[in-house]
Amino acid sequence: MLDVRRLRLLVELSRRGTIAAVAEALSFSPSAVSQQLGVLEREAGTVLLEPVGRRVRLTPQGELLVAHAEEVLAGLERAETSLAASRGEVTGRVRLAAFQSAVLALVPEALTRLAEQHPTLRVEVTEREPEQSLPDLAAGDFDLVLGEEYPGHPRPRLRGLDREDLLTDQLHLAVPAAWGVRALGRLRDRPFAVEPEGTTSREWALGVCRTAGLEPDVRHVSTDLQIHLRLVETGLAAAFVPDLAGARGRPGVRLIALPGRPVRTVFTAVRVGARARPAIGAVIDALRPAGG
Q1: pTM for this entry
Q2: Residues of the chain with CATH 1.10.10.10
Q3: What is the fold, at CATH topology level, of the domain defined by 93-292?
Q4: pLDDT in tens, 169-220
Q5: Which fold is adopted by the domain 4-84?
Q6: What is the structure's pLDDT at 54?
Q7: Quick one: pLDDT at residue 291?
Q8: What pLDDT does 88 receive?
Q9: What is the pLDDT at residue 135?
Q10: What is the pLDDT of residue 26?
Q11: What pLDDT sits at residue 87?
Q12: Which parts of the chain have pLDDT scores under 50?
């Protein structure tokens, strides 16, 4: 009989890549992880890992077992959800990861409502961008993720995750009002603030600029959209901002509509089988905009 705890270690290894990373995430020693994976190999009666330099990788049999183990773990998630639903209690702990503008614009009001409606429910919030939070969710570090997806840049659908769109968030070009500029094409040689390389928001922003016929002069890089807006307010940069960033009505900021009025999609993601858990469902409901 294969041990579920050891199967979980194998799945974690497939997601995190190294025994050291698995050990750190699960508060084990690397030697303990290696030992348990060795026991799992004996239980399975086949070689699951092979050395590659100083690391290990899954054999074809290891990959096959991971696929079955993920189904087993998803089944356990559904069983826990069914038990929680049968009790009808909205209590316990929900670990939520959300990107910055969602933490500022959506989460505080949701937490206030949850405190009134479900006072024994504990929600722990971590600010984390989707590039990191979605793999962390799959690995079990969070119970719920608020993510964002930019036009033309769909995010990978990670195995074992269940995604549902929550709302759309219109995107604008924000420029210093003092510049007197009313179109993106007029911003040649003007400084821009953008998000870091490797983020879909940056890729989208650069694509919008290039479609308009200019290569943006990137002088400021930050994941913090409030820094972007502050740079716009003080006349130092232009930036692309969504409605959730709170740019409307900011002094010294002019919002310019973009062609096609693009929107980013804000979505929730949970592990397969967890969405019906009362505590997670309550948090998702609280995050929905009024009338949504």
Answers
A1: 0.78
A2: 4-84
A3: D-Maltodextrin-Binding Protein; domain 2 (3.40.190)
A4: 999 999 999 999 999 999 999 999 999 998 999 999 999 999 999 999 999 9
A5: Arc Repressor Mutant, subunit A (1.10.10)
A6: 77
A7: 47
A8: 67
A9: 86
A10: 75
A11: 67
A12: 291
pLDDT of 290: 65
Of 46, 45, 28, which is closest to residue 36 (Cα–Cα)?
28
Residue 20: both structure tokens together: 């050291």
Burial (CB < 10 A; 0-12, 13-18, 19+), residue 265, is middle
| Amino acid symbol at 170 | Q
The residues, any chain, with a CB within 8 Å of residue 14's CB and separated by 6 or more, are 58, 62, 63, 66
Measure Cα distances from 218 to 206, 215, 262 in Å.
10, 9, 22
In whole angstroms, give the CA distance from residue 239 to residue 195. Answer: 10
Nearest C-alpha neighbor of 272 from the set 5, 83, 80 = 80
Q: For 53, list phi and psi in degrees, rounded to 5.
A: 65, -125
Angle at 74 between CA 69 and CA 77, to 5 degrees: 130
CATH 3.40.190.290 in the chain is located at 93-292
Adjacent-strand bridge partners of 75: none
3-state secondary structure the chain: CCCHHHHHHHHHHHHHCCHHHHHHHHCCCHHHHHHHHHHHHHHHCCCCEEEECCEEEECHHHHHHHHHHHHHHHHHHHHHHHHHHHHCCCCEEEEEEECHHHHHHCHHHHHHHHHHHCCCEEEEEEECCHHHHHHHHHCCCCCEEEEEEECCECCCCCCCEEEEEEEEEEEEEEEEHHHCCCCHHHCCCCEEEECCCCCHHHHHHHHHHHHCCCCCEEEEECCCHHHHHHHHHCCCCEEEEEHHHCCCCCCCEEEEECCCCCEEEEEEEEECCCCCCHHHHHHHHHHCCCCC
